[in-house]
Amino acid sequence: MTTEERKSILTEEQAKEIEKMEDVGNNSRDLTGNMKMIFTVIAVVGALFHLFVLNFYPLDPWVFRSVHLAFGAVLALMLFKPRKNGSNKIALIDWVLILAIIFITSYIYMNLSTLLFRFGVMPTFMDSIVALIGLAIVFEITRRTSGWTLPILASIFVLYAFLGPWLPGILKHRGYAWDRFVTYIFGLDGVFGVTLDVSSKYILLFIIFGAFLQLSGVGRYFIDFSFSLAGGMRGGPAKVSVISSGLMGMMNGTSAGNAVATGSLTIPLMKKVGYTGRFAAATEATASAGGQIMIPIMGAGAFIMAELTGIRYSEIIIAATIPALLYFISVYFMVDFQAIKNGMKGIPRKDLPSLKGIFKQAYLFIPIILLIGSLLSGYSVIRSGTISILACLLISWITPNNKMGPKEVIEALVLGMKNTIQLLAVCATAGVIVGVIALTGVGQRFSSMLLGVADTNILLALIFAMLISIILGMGMPTTAAYAVAASVVAPGLISIGIPLLTAHMFVFYFAVMSAITPPVALAAYAAAGVAGTDPFKTGITAFKLGIAAFIVPFMFYYSPQLMMEGSGVSIGWSFVTASVGIYLLAACVQGWFAKKETGIIVRILLIAGSLCLINAGLIMDIVAVAIVVVAIVYQRFIQKDKQIH
Known about the structure:
By secondary structure, the protein is mainly alpha-helical. It has helices at residues 12-19, 33-55, 61-79, 92-110, 112-118, 125-146, 149-163, 178-185, 194-215, 218-230, 236-249, 255-273, 277-290, 301-309, 313-342, 355-360, 366-376, 381-396, 406-440, 442-456, 458-473, 478-488, 490-495, 500-513, 522-531, 535-545, 552-558, 568-590, 600-612, 618-637, and strands at residues 592-593, 596-597. The mean pLDDT is 87.
């Protein structure tokens, strides 16, 4: 390729930042010298151990998950300070905790056959002490990597386990002895349950895959591809943010981490072409949250869904395809209407990567295509992920500036383990909550209550389930938010007659959207930090931009064709009508329709038309068309707002 065709929107420094995008927050240590070497060795050994066990040498589930937790805990205690302003030197307490987690892992391995029968039933005093210390370490590494929110929520659930006998109504239960409780929760029904199982088998594998994508130059290509495709359009950088954050976000476990990584590039460019700082940050946050529902990886949440439901992963990503497209179509319309209202232009074509050069590098999409193809062909998730990692390595060898030698492979393995730490800790703590829900039976009692609500109105039951899912997910990464909401809400939805996959997808979407839902909108707050804007106001704007994600899940029930159920014609027609509904919704939120600013009457008509298109049916489609015709007539001939020229 010529020099012009190789041109990138990124400087070499920015490209290196993208390649080494770490999701480690701002309280991590800058390890140097021997400590850095020890950390690197542990991380590389940990990554290779997981890849070997997953592909060639299966271990007992409890042993494998305990070793998985041990690697994560050791790396977390080395990398993360106890406090943000703590010392860069690894403290004595960190070494004590490291030795403790190694002892706990050894204890589980050496006593496995008896612990399987003793834990949670007739534990010894030593069993209880081991479990108690293990829980303390899990809470501590979660606090260091994700903040106080999840440990506090888990602590509330722990207290609930002991206070149950004195609580009223559906919250009441008989209570549990402390030794039985801690050993139950630190067993295969709690910390080492389904959430850590998914972390050890799938999340780690695909985060390593994401690291190989970044180091092989695919991450850089995603951004150049987005700029080349959309950068020259009106309000181009915002549309670039939508595309690039969706692509980058699907391989990043947290929407907040993605908002910071890609936002550092897209937010300044959005401000440069005329978007306000708040709108720019909100756009990045909304697009990054959408990355968590973008196929094929879906920010790791889909793996937990597959484990909880028993539905094949390939079926889940097929069902999630149209909803993901609708979400990004909505955000695209939102930023486009804002660009029209403000009279914005795009980035000059001469400053963008060559479209010809971008297409010549389309082979960089091969790892993603290979992953999707392998999954749809019936290969296991583990085999598909491993093949895709190897594909990244091979692809890098034909990429001029990103050939991966031994040094780069080690960097990718270390980066993958670093980016796994937070999600591993989150999954372990989420396991505590899931364990308490199962032990106390509060999830079943919630299902009964939801069933009672559904007897009155199923829409009311869905709204109630939505609110619970959002509240439970506030302040938590997607993976934990979904795991908790799935334990509490999904069984209730299934009990009122909603199909298994529909119920879990409904809960999953709202768990994801908790990242842009005030008052605790993590992705919006992270993007606001990059833009230097008010976090809460940014969260409100992000909520408005992502409003479609609060409508689409209801379509899962009322228009099951959107989840690829039914004939090709019915699926296609539902997609078209849903897209029109999303357009009307965006027009309503942004106050722009038929080339004019809208008044309150037209906005009401637009939202009514949008809601009519939620329900797949000819009558409701006709009603929606009639409403839109009325809105157009009113807007064109009665509304007196200023017109664009």
